[in-house]
Design brief:
The structure holds four protein chains of four kinds.
Chain A: H1 2-20, H2 24-44, H3 48-73, H4 88-110, H5 126-134, H6 139-160, H7 171-185, E1 208-209, E2 215-216, H8 222-227, H9 236-246, H10 250-256
Antiparallel strand pairs in A: 1-2
Chain B: H1 5-22, H2 30-54, E1 62-72, E2 75-83, H3 85-108, H4 115-134, H5 138-156, H6 163-194, H7 199-205, H8 211-228, H9 236-240, H10 246-255, H11 260-267, H12 269-273, H13 276-299, H14 303-323, H15 326-356, H16 369-372, H17 374-388, H18 394-409, H19 411-436, H20 453-468, H21 477-486, H22 498-519, H23 536-542, H24 547-593, H25 600-623
Antiparallel strand pairs in B: 1-2
Helix pairs in contact in B: 1-2, 1-4, 2-3, 2-4, 3-4, 3-10, 3-15, 3-20, 4-5, 5-6, 5-10, 6-8, 8-11, 8-13, 10-15, 11-14, 13-14, 13-19, 13-23, 14-15, 14-18, 14-19, 15-17, 15-18, 15-20, 15-21, 17-19, 17-20, 18-19, 19-22
Chain D: H1 2-19, H2 27-51, E1 60-68, E2 73-79, H3 81-100, H4 112-131, H5 135-144, H6 146-156, H7 161-193, H8 200-204, H9 210-227, H10 236-243, H11 246-271, H12 273-299, H13 304-324, H14 328-359, H15 370-373, H16 375-388, H17 395-410, H18 412-437, H19 453-471, H20 474-491, H21 504-508
Antiparallel strand pairs in D: 1-2
Classes of the chains: A mainly alpha, B mainly alpha, C mainly alpha, D mainly alpha.
């Protein structure tokens, strides 16, 4: 019981952390805590096989997958915590609390008989007992899970696979396109400006400042822009603020006079 | 032979069906088939009549049944026909006059492209009219009753391309339907009271029922009779019905169909004998119509409408007589027969005149036609003498008898009937003077000429009948003949000797003739005086004593507004409620739609909330 | 026993609330996993209470299904991210007419 | 088996027509095929009628098989005289309607085959409804008839068809739901009484408390009143009739609507006799209102099809009046009326449909003087109209008189007020005839053709039947009467005895 009382608060706190963390990575770590704690609780409850599976499958495989995808779509980005649907949060909280309360009341009604314990069931060993069930009574369901896994694998492949729809464009094509854009739209044919040329901020996520003081969006690498990770708003006033921090600029003062 | 009464009906019916189904192929000879059918029915009717005469007095009613028409529950209708003294006379009138008019129509309709159709309708009419008079059951009678109504509708509206003709046909049918309503309710009352609608059974059992039943039946049948016979207050259709071809006016709207109401009353003698009130109402209706018809006849310039007013008036006489009970039934029928002859004669004569005048019906455009159309003039003149009751002519006997009977019933009613005779003499004299005497007033391009012999021969025959029709009364034959049906007629108790009455009537008639001759001795203007310039009496007569206006204001307009109101209510009220409900639901759905934000988290909240409800429900059930 | 079940419910509710309030599809997904794990805990606890291994078997199946689901789910998230450059579930509101 | 074959034949025909290879590209083939199927069905129906023992009265050709034992539903068919009458009406009208529909201009000509397939399907379902003696089966078929009609109106109708189709569907579904609730109630009652059953024969003897009976009765009655349609539940009919093809309108008004009045007799009167007695005064008043209201509204219509629809509201008023007067005469008359009204409305809808197709407008004011160039068309319209206004000598007169006379023995005021309908009938029919057919020919109507051979062939049988039944209704009544008598006995009503009965036979037959 000690284990439970130690782990239970941790798990609840971690679960709360899961839904409150701004950053997805933190949430994932919280989830990992819950899962490992669960594994321990399984062990405590005479389920050594599930303990192992929980660690291997959940913490080992599933959590890794989560983190993998997180890395893929931008690990740094923290979510905005401003709710966009009116009343959603309040309603969720109310329903959640009511749900929890109701279920807890319900438990008192349901769990009345005393605990039998698994000593007898686990007499031949937990794994053997499970195996006996899986391969006799639940054998059909088990086979179906096999089919499910295969389907899932195929599904993941289909979903993640990207067919090349057009032949890749060669350097020549790109160059021609660039010149055509210059001719037709007046786009600068040269390389895009490198980020942070006016090195107020020494990073690739800072857009370059153009001579008129505006930012050049295309100076930030495209993948950052797509994730929305470029630094915003190095507009004129920000530049001025930064300049003021750095020190008085004589030219500026001359101009003022 | 007497069992063949169904054949009387079948022959013209087959003629009508043949002509209608055969189609254009029969255009060339259709009229001959129709005339032959009518003539065959007449011959058969004559043979049957002779056989009937040969029978004993109490063996003269032969009922034949073709089988059950329909039955359910307690109700049972036999398709049965009775050939007896009354119906035999009608059969002869209908087929006899009918055949003559068929012959006449061959000439009259010679140039009409739809002549085959016309003859088919005529045959249909003859069949329906025979059904009416031969029926042994009120329901079969009603079949004929509506059949003649249909034929009348088709024939009044025969020239359908004229709006007025179509409107007149509709008016006739719809006003008759009002009468039919009375008939139908009477039929239902008979069934509810006696469990049958057999004419013999109902009239035989009427004494067992309460007096009020008899009165109700009598009044309801009178409503039907008023519709069919153009009696006040359902008379307005008859003048419009003159839109039909003239032979139709002669056959249907003078000689036969319009007298069906009188037939009905006489046929229902049992019912009327049992109800004093019903009889009195019949007398009043007859008297009022008599005077109104005569009034209208005096004011119209349209020759056919004068004759139509006159028809109304004469049927009023018959109704009056029929309302007098056994004292008058036979005379009603007698007058009906003689009127059938002389009025058909005059209508056909008027048709002959119109034929000569390029279908102009305005008497003010006639004048001095006696020289141009001698045969028409002579035959028409004989009809004229008959209708005014010139001594020795048929009308003299029949009308005199009615006036005598009316005097015996009530002095004032008798006097009123007498005045009616005088007025009749006046307007008929007016018609004669304007049409055949005086100076010619027709336009130069009109060339009056005598009609072809196919038209004049029927005129001559009918004129002869008009003169000789009084023979039916020789030795009181007709009263004796009809006694089994009409009951024994007591000689009326008159306040003065009969001869005084006859002289009085003659004096009144002579006065009327004299007035007519005097007033129209000189030229009449070929255009009628404007409404404003004539007396209110004339104006009312011209406007058919404003009955159309009254009907319009009391019936047509309210129904029209009611209809509009209901159409509006149906769209707004009933359908509005339904569509309104639909709209409200639609609006509510629009509101609910807002909850469907498209955000998956909203839906998830819904699912979660739903799960909560389910759990709550389960808990509630387990805890309860 | 009751406390295990209560914990399970608590975790389940927290997971559900997480699904409702988080917008990052990956986090939403993690919350779903939390809910699944919570039920697993209930299964295992009930197995112990009833003294047989059927509950554990059920938990095992849940894990298998969860694994498959995660694979597909993440694949979907990746492909959505590829086209829409976002993992916010609010962006995928095409259900709205 | 006979009845199953009869009902299934058109349905198989419908499948054939719908699935025949190349059907969508060959309308002519489809039409011939559909006509052939409907004629085969007619022949089968005639065989059934020939084998029917009219004097016996009860249900014949009975088939009964367990269907859903769990709820006691049976596949049970059987025909009594009333059912046979309506089956004959259905099978007679179907070929007429299909032949008349050959020339229909559909919104999507490529779907001609589905048009005819739905018609055949409707025929089969209607036969099933008239033959079903299990209320569960009846309900299923009753609701199933909505499907073909919905598509016939909604997919193949004219202007405003989708509005009309939806309105039609919702009205009838709401009615159907009320009926379903009542059927569930019946199920509960039979289950409580012992064995669950939906069989007509079992339900007749069911012991129901008065209050429950009234509620269940109302569920059934409202469904049928919507179908019939009775005032004030009628407003779907004019819209549906105005937006469908003439053939669809005929199927709807002449056949499907008859299901309502037919079911009133079979299910309301027989199963809930007490409640029927209880409701009869109100229903009769509603029926009389329907009669006058329908007639008055018909007078006020400009659209010919809406006019005919409203005349039907009026006629259905007569039918319901006859049914709920509970006399043998009136109820037999009402049954006969169903048949006759089917014929006369079919003629009216089809012939005006042909007229409307020629002109491209259904507005009465757009016509005038047509009689001059198309006399046969005008003649058939007139006969149809005269039958609608119940002219003696045409079939509907007898039934209308029977209804009125039977009602008169029960309630004089109602019968007298209802009789005013005969005047209004003359007004609406003759005004319509006058405005369309008489007077000078309106400009723009010169191109109107006379009926062609096919159209005439389609209409002639109905016209001949109308005239023949006007004089010889005996064969039909001999089938109807023995079936109506037990209904009246079941309701517990007795024909009022005339206060001064006359033995008509002895009085009338003296030579």
């Amino acid at each position: 019981m000690t284990t439970f009382w130690v782990l239970a608060p941790i798990m609840v706190i971690a679960a709360m952390g899961l839904i409150l963390a701004r950053k997805a990575v933190h949430a994932a770590l919280c989830l990992a805590v819950v899962m490992i704690s669960l594994a321990v609780l399984y062990a405590v409850q005479d389920a050594p096989f599930l303990f192992a599976v929980q660690i291997i499958v959940y913490t080992g495989a599933i959590m890794m997958l989560f983190l993998f995808v997180l890395m893929l779509v931008g690990v740094d980005r923290s979510d905005s915590l401003v709710e966009s649907i009116k009343g959603q949060r309040l309603a969720a909280a109310v329903v959640g609390i009511l749900f929890a309360v109701t279920l807890s009341i319900g438990v008192g009604q349901v769990v009345v008989s005393s605990t039998i314990g698994l000593d007898q069931a686990n007499a031949d060993g937990n794994v053997e007992g499970l195996a006996a069930l899986l391969f006799t009574r639940y054998v059909i369901a088990f086979e179906f899970t096999a089919a499910l896994m295969i389907t899932a694998v195929l599904g993941a492949m289909v979903l993640a696979h990207r067919e090349r729809l057009v032949t890749p464009r060669s350097q020549t094509d790109l160059q021609k396109q660039r010149m055509r854009d210059y001719a037709e739209q007046g786009r600068h044919p040269g390389n895009p400006p490198t980020p942070g040329v006016f090195a107020l901020h020494n990073a690739v996520d800072t857009p370059a400042l153009l001579p008129d003081g505006t930012t050049a969006e295309e100076s930030v690498p495209e993948s950052l822009r797509q994730r929305g990770q470029e630094r915003q708003g190095l507009d004129d006033s920000a530049v001025q603020d930064r300049l003021r921090e750095i020190g008085p600029d004589e030219d500026e003062e001359d101009a003022d006079r | 032979m007497l069992e063949l009464s169904w054949l009387l009906i079948a022959i013209p019916l087959a003629g009508a069906a043949l002509l209608l189904v055969w189609g254009k192929g029969a255009d060339r000879f259709g009229h001959l088939i129709a005339t032959a059918a009518s003539a065959a029915a007449f011959v058969l009717g004559l043979i049957m009549f002779v056989e009937l005469i040969g029978r004993g007095a109490d063996d003269r009613s032969v009922t034949t049944s073709l089988g059950t028409w329909f039955e359910a529950g307690r109700f049972h209708v036999e398709f049965a026909f009775t050939f007896d003294q009354l119906s035999s006379l009608f059969v002869l009138l209908i087929t006899g006059v009918g055949t003559l008019i068929h012959v006449y129509s061959i000439g009259y309709m010679a140039h009409d492209a739809r002549r085959r159709r016309f003859f088919a309708y005529l045959n249909l009419f003859v069949a329906a009219m025979l059904t009416l008079v031969l029926a042994a059951d009120y329901l079969v009678l009603f079949l004929g009753w509506e059949g003649v109504g249909l034929a009348s509708f088709l024939l009044i509206g025969f020239w359908q391309h004229k709006e007025t003709a179509a409107a007149a046909a509709n008016k006739a049918f719809i006003m008759n339907r009002v009468g039919d309503l009375g008939m139908v309710i009477a039929l239902m009352t008979m069934f509810a009271t006696f469990g049958t609608t057999s004419i013999a059974a109902v009239n035989g059992a009427i004494d067992s029922a309460s007096g009020s039943t008899a009165t109700a039946l009598g009044l309801l049948l009178l409503v039907g009779a008023c519709g069919k016979s153009a009696q006040v207050p359902l008379q307005a259709w008859l003048l419009d019905a003159m839109e039909g071809p003239t032979p139709v006016s002669a056959l249907i709207h003078a000689a036969t169909m319009v007298t069906a109401g009188v037939y009905l009353v006489v046929r229902s003698a049992g019912i009327y004998d049992a109800s004093e009130i019903a009889r009195t109402v019949v007398v009043i209706v007859g008297l009022v119509t008599l005077l109104v018809g005569a009034w209208i006849g005096c004011a119209k310039d349209d020759i056919k409408k004068v004759l139509a007013g006159s028809t109304m008036s004469q049927i009023g006489y018959m109704m009056l007589a029929a309302g007098l009970g056994p004292a008058g039934y036979a005379f009603a029928i007698f007058h009906l027969l003689t009127h059938g002859f002389f009025k058909a004669n005059m209508f056909l004569g008027a048709g002959s005149v119109m034929h000569a005048m390029d279908d102009d019906v305005d008497m003010r455009h006639y004048g001095a036609l006696r020289r141009a159309m001698p045969i028409t003039f002579v035959t028409f003149g004989l009809g004229y003498l008959a209708i005014i009751g010139f001594p020795g002519m048929s009308g003299f006997f029949s009308k005199d008898k009615i006036i005598e009977a009316a005097l015996g019933y009530n002095t004032w009613i008798g006097l009123a009937a007498m005045i009616g005779a005088g007025v009749t003499a006046f307007y008929m004299t007016r018609l004669m003077m304007m049409t055949f005497f005086g100076e010619k007033r027709w336009r130069d391009e009109v060339h009056p000429h005598e009609s072809p012999s196919v038209m004049t021969i029927p005129l001559i025959v009918l004129a002869a009948a008009s003169v000789l029709g009084g023979a039916l009364y020789l030795g009181g034959w007709i009263t004796d003949w009809l006694e089994p049906i009409a009951g024994h007629a007591e000689h009326p108790h008159l306040p003065v000797p009969v001869i005084v009455v006859q002289l009085g009537v003659m004096a009144v008639v002579a006065l009327g003739v004299a007035a007519g001759v005097w007033l129209y001795r000189r030229d009449v203007p070929d255009r009628a005086a404007a409404d404003a310039d004539v007396s209110i009496v004339t104006r009312a007569g011209r406007h058919e004593i404003y009955t159309n206006e009254v009907n319009g204001a009391l019936v047509v307009l309210p129904v029209r507004y009611l209809t509009r109101l209901l159409v509006w209510l149906d769209a707004r009220g009933i359908d509005g409620t339904v569509t309104g409900t639909a709209d409200r639901i639609g609006e509510a759905s629009q509101q609910l739609r807002r909850t469907q934000t498209g955000y998956v988290r909203s839906y998830a909240l819904g699912i979660f909330g739903g799960a909560l409800l389910v759990v709550l429900g389960l808990l509630a059930v387990t805890l309860a | 026993m009751t406390e295990y079940i209560t914990l399970s419910f608590l975790l389940f509710t927290i997971g559900a609330v997480g699904v409702l309030v988080r917008r990052n599809a990956i986090v939403v997904f993690m919350c779903v996993e939390l809910m699944l794990n919570a039920t697993n805990l209930a299964f295992v606890s009930f197995a112990r209470q009833h003294g047989n291994l059927d509950g554990q078997t059920a938990a095992f199946f849940v894990m298998v299904v969860a694994a498959a689901e995660v694979v597909i789910g993440l694949a979907i998230i990746v492909s959505i991210y590829r086209t829409r450059r976002s993992t916010s579930v609010d962006e995928a509101n095409l259900l709205k007419a | 088996m006979m009845l199953t074959v009869l009902a299934v034949t058109p349905i198989i025909g419908a499948l054939l027509v719908a699935c025949w290879p190349g059907a969508s590209g060959n309308p002519r083939l489809v039409k011939v095929l559909a006509l052939a199927v409907s004629l085969i069905t007619l022949v089968l129906a005639i065989v059934v009628a020939a084998q029917f023992d009219a004097a016996e009265g009860g249900y014949q050709f009975v088939e009964q098989r367990e269907w859903i034992p769990a709820i006691g539903a049976h596949y049970a068919l059987g025909l009594n005289g009333i059912g046979l009458t309506l089956v004959m009406l259905t099978t007679i009208l179907s070929p007429i309607v299909i032949l008349a529909a050959w020339g229909d201009r559909l919104p999507n000509p490529a779907r001609t085959h589905t048009y005819f397939a739905w018609m055949l399907a409707l025929e089969g379902l209607a036969i099933g409804v008239f033959a079903a003696t299990d209320v569960f089966l009846f309900y299923l078929l009753f609701e199933a008839t909505l499907v073909p009609l919905y598509f016939l109106i909604g997919a193949h109708g004219g202007v405003g068809r989708s509005y009309a189709a939806v309105k039609f569907l919702i009205y009838n579904l709401v009615g159907g739901l009320l009926m379903l609730a009542s059927i569930v109630g019946l199920y509960a009652l039979t289950t409580r009484a012992g064995e669950s059953s939906f069989l007509h024969s079992e339900l007749i003897g069911l012991d129901i408390s008065a209050g429950t009976e009234k509620l269940l009765f109302l569920g059934f009655f409202i469904a049928f009143a919507v179908k019939a349609p009775m005032w004030p539940l009628h407003t779907w009919l004019p819209d549906a009739a105005a937006s469908s093809t003439p053939s669809t309108a005929v199927l709807m008004v002449s056949i499907v609507d008859k299901i309502g009045t037919f079911a009133m007799i079979r299910w309301c009167l027989e199963i809930f006799p007490g409640a029927s007695q209880w409701a009869s005064p109100v229903v009769m008043v509603l029926a009389v209102i329907s009669i006058l209201y329908g007639a008055l509204l018909a007078i006020g219509q400009d659209d010919i099809r809406r006019l005919i629809a409203f005349t039907s509201v009026s006629h259905f008023g007569f039918i319901v009046l006859g049914i709920f007067a509970f006399t043998t005469l009136s109820t037999s008359g009402a049954t006969l009326y169903m048949f006759n009204h089917g014929l006369s409305t079919a003629v009216l809808f089809l012939v005006t449909g042909m007229l409307i197709a020629r002109r491209g407008s259904a507005s009465i004011s757009e016509f005038g003087g047509v009689q001059k160039i198309a006399p046969v068309l005008a003649g058939i319209l007139l006969i149809g109209g005269l039958s609608s206004l119940s002219l003696p000598g045409l079939a509907p007169f007898i039934s209308e008189f029977m209804v009125l006379a039977g009602t008169f023995t029960v309630s004089i005021p109602l019968a007298v007020i209802a009789a005013f309908g005969i005047i209004l009938a003359a007004v609406y029919i003759l005004l319509m005839y006058k405005r369309t057919m008489t007077g000078p020919l309106r400009p723009g109507l010169d191109g109107i053709r006379e009926l062609d051979g096919r159209e005439f062939t389609a209409l002639a049988p109905a016209v001949v039947l109308i005239i023949a039944l006007g004089f010889v209704p005996g064969p039909l009544l001999s089938v109807i009467n023995p079936s109506v008598e037990p209904v009246i006995a079941q309701v517990g009503a007795e024909d009022p005895v005339p206060p001064h009965p006359v033995d008509a036979a002895s009085e009338g037959a003296h030579e």
